[in-house]
Amino acid sequence: MIPKNMAEAVEKAKKVKLVIFDVHGVLTDNTVLYNEEGIRSRIFCHEDAFGCNALMHCGIEVAVITRKSKAYALRMEEMGIKRYYESNRKIDRYELLLEELKITDEEVCYVGDEVIDLGIMKRVGFAVAPSNARRQAMEAAHWITEKSGGRGVARELAEFILEAQGKWHTFCEDILREGW
Fold this sequence. Notes:
Elements: H1 6-14, E1 18-21, E2 33-34, E3 40-41, H2 46-57, E4 61-66, H3 70-79, E5 83-86, H4 90-101, E6 108-111, H5 118-121, E7 126-129, H6 135-140, E8 143-144, H7 153-164, H8 168-178
Helix pairs in contact: 1-7, 2-7
């Protein structure tokens, strides 16, 4: 693993107003399953839904940019992610999000694992890669999660960002008081 500057990562996380996730290799482990009828499926980690919802509960926007997939759209809807975009041109969608939310590159966290994610990773204020990402993504990242893609990356990142912003403790108290 490539060592990263933890103090720098915390400072970058403090500024985050939007977290954008790739799906393949980030919210899934890249496994593709086929049943006897030839229907394809993917596996998602339940705790990632909790992480995304924790971010949104604390006022941080969450978006997903990936290729077209009916299954992904259903999972994002189930997770409550309203900013789900199907696009092969991630950078174009990214720029529209900046404009729509009136934020800067510095206020964005992008989580990617592959060469196709580098365009955005090299622009954002806080680039993150799962521990099993490709070398180029790890090199571009400001922080590398302990979790691998599809195994709780969003949950781990949510706690990291919310702790950096001083919101994690209050979030946990809210859950204990109000339930989830």
